[in-house]
Amino acid sequence: MAGLSLKSVKKRFGETEVIRGVDLDVSDGEFVVFVGPSGCGKSTLLRMIAGLESTSEGRIGIGGRDVTGEDPSKRGIAMVFQSYALYPHMTVAANMGFPLEMAKRPKDEIGRKVAEAAKILHLEPYLKRKPRELSGGQRQRVAIGRAIVRQPGVFLFDEPLSNLDAELRVQMRIEIARLHQQLGTTMIYVTHDQVEAMTLASRIVVLRAGRIEQVGAPLDLYENPDNSFVAGFIGSPRMNFIPATVDAVEDGKAVVSAPQAGLSGLAVAARGELPKPGAKVSLGIRPEHFVPAEGAAAALTGRVTLMERLGGVSYAHAQLGNGESVTVESRDARSFAAGEEARFGIDPARAFLFDEDGRRL
Ligand SMILES: Nc1ncnc2c1ncn2[C@@H]1O[C@H](COP(=O)(O)OP(=O)(O)OP(=O)(O)O)[C@@H](O)[C@H]1O
Ligand SMILES: [Mg+2]
């Protein structure tokens, strides 16, 4: 097993800098998830850790050893991709044993390690089958098995579940969590899936345009985002952002209003620096944090344009007087109706303020 350290890591493809100075320390046994918009550099960074891409600047350490210029096969890592890349003409057992075969390990050792991996992944009944005789989830388990037999110090996963249907994804997500518990090996995992990131990660790394925006435990990022980018990225459906103005500052709180959206006198505690009266801010409220308008400290007014009723939870999509749209979650399917003018209560303790540059206030 091994930890990982990235020091001022950069990657250029020709003139374009794609990874623009990343510093990160991962402890041995951690489960770290990379998230961020498409093209932000998640796969590139993972491939640099694996040694499949060279590093333009900075150092990469694995297990306390500098591996920056080292060959992928020497780094003690194993990578699992979105496409399973199994050999179609080989059996499951042969596919899983292939890396050891290549390393010229003795037959009995290969047999033993494949058997162990098959047991962990519940693949024992399928060892003699060919990949085409397996479901997508089973194929991905074989690809993971091929990584396990190498007993790597670090597992690297690049969106391993995105080819699977929704139900299989849930099942495989639980299997990967179990695998991490069982093996205790460091895992770095790239995903687009909010739920995967929130449930699997010990820490989430939010990337944007080749830089780290914030690193933290999933709930820390959800409850304490440093900026509007992270606030908007973590949480689903995403946080609502409403342009507002600071009317006054008192007792460490900013009193904000958004007259066209029917909002006034909302006093929000600032976490750091207080804004100046008159400042333009962005008020952030998650769909799940609205409260009934009666008795609320403040409320937004808008016209409900669409209701999504999912059974346990409903989402009201509303248009505010300032033209902004908001999404409001409710647990009562009958709470709002499309077409009606409604008020959405705000709990100041659940409201966030961001300055014009998106920094959390
Ligand atoms: N070999 C390459 N040559 C030039 N540019 C590249 C190369 N590989 C990737 N890029 C660029 O680097 C950027 C980051 O790509 P990367 O594949 O790391 O993104 P990603 O975060 O994994 O995105 P996605 O979520 O879509 O998989 C993109 O703008 C991409 O076009
Ligand atoms: Mg990618």
Automatic annotation (TrEMBL):
Topological type in the membrane: Peripheral membrane protein
GO cellular component: ATP-binding cassette (ABC) transporter complex, substrate-binding subunit-containing; maltose transport complex
InterPro entries on file: AAA+_ATPase, ABC_transporter-like_ATP-bd, ABC_transporter-like_CS, ABC_transpr_MalK-like, ABC_transpr_MalK/UgpC-like, Mo/tungstate-bd_C_term_dom, NA-bd_OB-fold, P-loop_NTPase
Keyword ATP-binding annotated: yes
Annotated keywords: ATP-binding, Nucleotide-binding, Transport
Organism domain of life: Bacteria
Subcellular location: Cell inner membrane
Domain (ABC transporter): residue spans on this chain: 4-234
Family membership: Belongs to the ABC transporter superfamily.
SUPFAM superfamilies, A to Z: MOP-like, P-loop containing nucleoside triphosphate hydrolases
Pfam families referenced in this protein's UniProt entry, alphabetically: ABC_tran, TOBE_2
Record-given protein name: ABC transporter ATP-binding protein
Protein's organism: Aquamicrobium defluvii
CDD domains in UniProt: ABC_MalK_N (cd03301)
UniProt cross-references to PANTHER family, sorted A to Z: MALTODEXTRIN IMPORT ATP-BINDING PROTEIN MSMX, MALTOSE_MALTODEXTRIN IMPORT ATP-BINDING PROTEIN MALK
Record-level Gene Ontology MF annotations: ABC-type maltose transporter activity; ATP binding; ATP hydrolysis activity
